[in-house]
């Protein structure tokens, strides 16, 4: 029995379909333009193209806006536009609050990734807007550290730090694989649905042609019979 015919797959597919269609904060469902390409691969390709790491703003727009011939972009949904606008506002406010401060007095400054993760980490531990890449972002973020992080690092045993780092990497890899598997399952469902629709349309078209031919043949037969009856 094929996996996509199993009850487990059907249940996962139905749940994913419901989640993708769900309305969030009254601004509609959350969408993106990545297609079957994982967000991590989008970031890698974008990095190669830019010859540097893309900013949150750049990567988010590249994966949440439709590209047009005139090089302008239109948002895939209201939520996408709303979330980025709020993020840019938070990021600007944070940077303004850091003017005149030093790393020693305020601890290590937060990065733009930290700001995004702080505001977009849901109750399931996932980072909105970046798919599997969100797992990596969450691991990089320092949102759970206090401003005394710089000084507290010196209190760690090197072996303990190495162990924690390895555990963190393994956890990130597992979460990324899980997220990627779910994304691939959703993509597979869409492809299967499209394939079945195509096959159905082809069969329907073939059946229609066959019925049309039978109708024409039947009309000719009836017409011939009528003519013969009239001559008699």
From TrEMBL:
Residues 1-11 have a biased composition (Basic and acidic residues). Residues 1-30 are annotated as: Disordered. It holds the Pfam family Transposase_24. It comes from the Eukaryota. InterPro entries: Probable_transposase_24. This is Uncharacterized protein. It comes from Opuntia streptacantha.
């Amino acid at each position: 029995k094929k996996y996509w015919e199993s009850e487990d797959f059907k249940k996962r597919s139905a749940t994913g379909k419901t989640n993708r269609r769900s309305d969030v904060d009254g601004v509609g469902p959350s969408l993106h333009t990545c297609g079957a390409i994982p967000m991590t691969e989008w970031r890698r390709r974008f990095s190669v193209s830019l010859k540097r790491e893309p900013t949150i703003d750049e990567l988010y727009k590249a994966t949440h806006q439709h590209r047009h011939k005139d090089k302008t972009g239109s948002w895939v949904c209201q939520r996408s536009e709303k979330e980025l606008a709020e993020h840019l506002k938070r990021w600007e406010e944070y940077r303004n609050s850091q003017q005149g401060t030093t790393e020693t007095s305020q601890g290590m400054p937060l990065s733009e990734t930290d700001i995004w993760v702080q505001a977009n980490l849901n109750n399931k531990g996932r980072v909105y807007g970046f798919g599997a890449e969100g797992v990596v972002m969450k691991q990089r973020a320092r949102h759970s550290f206090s401003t005394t992080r710089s000084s507290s690092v010196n209190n760690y045993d090197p072996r303990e730090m190495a162990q924690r780092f390895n555990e963190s990497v393994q956890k990130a890899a597992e979460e990324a694989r899980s997220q990627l598997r779910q994304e691939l399952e959703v993509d597979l469902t869409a492809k299967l649905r499209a394939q079945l629709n195509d096959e159905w349309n082809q069969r329907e078209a073939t059946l229609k042609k066959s019925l049309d031919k039978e109708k024409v043949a039947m009309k000719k037969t009836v017409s011939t019979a009528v003519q013969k009856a009239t001559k008699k």
